[in-house]
Amino acid sequence: MTTYKILLQPLDVYFFGGAETFNHSNRKHAYKEKQNYFVRSQLFPQQTTILGMLRYQLLAQNNELVTKNYPRLLKPASDRIGVEGFKVENNVDKYGVISKISPIFLSNGTIDLIPHTKDFAWKDKENKEIQQIKPEFGNVYQRVMFNGKWQTAPDTLNTFKVKHGQPDLLVSHDGTEVHFRDFKKNFKDAVTLNKQPVKNGIFVEVTKIGINKEKRIKNDFKADSNKEKPKEAFFKQTKYRLIDGWSFAFYADLDEKIEDTIVCMGGDRSPFKLTSKVVSEGENFDNKFKDAYKHLPDNAIACYSDAFVKYDDVMNNCTFMINDSLPFASIADNYKSYIRSDNYVVLKRGSVLYGAKDFPKEVNFETIGYNTFYKK
Q1: Domains of the chain: which residue ranges?
Q2: pLDDT of the residue at 339
Q3: Structure-derived torsion over alpha carbons of residues 104, 107, 112, 115, reported in degrees to the nearest 10
Q4: Are 374 and 304 in contact (CB under 8 A)?
């Protein structure tokens, strides 16, 4: 087994859907579901997307892709990529030659970035300075409404004002460099965090607005003037691109090298340039980003990646959280149709859990880069 660092450089704007991209009326036929008219791309590809891309490329480079003539995986192909893709209910620790995938991150060849933790907020309404939220676990507590009941929570900084909001940040692998998430034109280093300037963002928003979302066949309505036209509809789609020099990246433990090529991913099959290289012994995600969240106190656990954690485990093992959540669903191919999973909610990467103990292992999630935690 060899560890590779794999880069995915977007060659155009991209769109990565999520569980909220489609309505949930017909989950067994994922691609027949009606799209929402207002959709926003996810910033990062899901780990399931990365797994699917790797499995596809391994078959493609070995001429073992499933076709109509060969509707099921042959023995060599199933040995190469596993019998089936990711399913929440399966306890899979390896997919053929794919032993492990790390959480996705950003890289420019020198600096690697991941989403920063959620324990930061604007200090004032002018948005000139960012401060860390530090829960005080002493004798002073405040009452908060949670799940319809009044409960106690640790006191936070007296200067923290919820109405000021929280910035979206990225942090470097060594914790020394902080960027905003979103790129801004005419950006100035006017915002500070711990007296250090926060740098400009990496993600560029690209919005597409149009009408008549339904597909039309060319000249279809000219040929038959009596034919009823589809209703005109307004739609808005927000895509992203990365600023020049940046790529998505991840580590993968593989028994077979992925060849450099062009791959397509996302809702619009956006093109990405894939390159891979063998890394030195000991280089992996955990070692690379071990100092990214070093500002956290000793009693905190943070989510390096999105994390599937059961509700009872959170409530029983955690004293306090600063977190965000994300709807999660996956699509599996049973060689005849695409089957969408049930809908779940996962902790969003960057969430911070105070007083938490180690959570029960979810092997199938950990294998493909979910459920990766920081702990001192």
Answers
A1: 2-118+166-375
A2: 54
A3: -50
A4: yes
